[in-house]
């Protein structure tokens, strides 16, 4: 697959932004006033979205672009939590059935979030079983699969986050993005490619889930033997094939952060700024505070979500 073949167009991102008005929130930038070296830094507060994460952008874009007859059949997806909540929320908006395949160890708050929007939850024991079970349910019930990141409309929707950053911080020089399957960073990279190609986009991932770093090293996605982190939304064992092709040429680097750094970032964002950010969303702030990055500001660190189990959050911030 070539870069051109995988490109998400500027028109697709702009159309997604227009369609999302009244559905997704134009989340604010919160200034981080005490980052070392006088660096001008902001957090993009995607935890303030209606479902508590950026995923509503891509889920709504993909579902809204289905043909009406297809959409009426209902949708199914697989998710560790936030994409599932987004698809459930969007399905409720359209009045269609939704099934979300989740790992049994997904945070209880994310499982409850899916059910609160009226979607059915199908649990699997192992994370690798999610996609096969999703495809099986789609075949059995005639539902339309809404992938978490291997979908150009999902990526276009996530790209609206990048478009907003450029509008809110016109002088931005660096954007830090959490990396799970790659949909968010691919979308933001698409926006940067079209609208501000000089901006540096850096992926951030846990040390125990460095799949983007490995893919960049060898030039293609590589499946890791295992992934492990408190950042439960960033644990895919490989970067998505389509996201990797879409981001190619824009994203050239990935930085890893340790578990203690992630926990400290969650605590810092809450204690200093009153922001409730889940570990997956706090990795970018952790990277900023690590001192390992040589970057030019202004810099925007995307906080991708805030759906964290209350007991875990209390342990991290107490």
Question: What tags apply to this protein structure?
Answer:
alpha/beta; Rossmann fold; 318 residues; 45% helix; disordered N terminus; six-stranded mixed beta sheet; 2 domains; single chain
Structure report:
The structure is a single chain. The chain is of the alpha/beta class and 318 residues long. It has 2 domains: 3-53 and 152-317, Rossmann fold, CATH 3.40.50; 56-145, 3-Layer(aba) Sandwich (Rossmann fold). Helices cover 45% and strands 16% of the residues. The chain is built from 14 helices and 10 strands. It has a 6-stranded mixed β-sheet. It has a 4-stranded parallel β-sheet with strand order 5-4-3-6, sandwiched between helices. Strand 1 and strand 2 form a beta hairpin. Helix 2 packs across helix 8, helix 9 packs parallel to helix 11 (241-247) and helix 12 packs across helix 13 (279-290). It starts with a helix and ends with a helix. The relative contact order is 0.17.
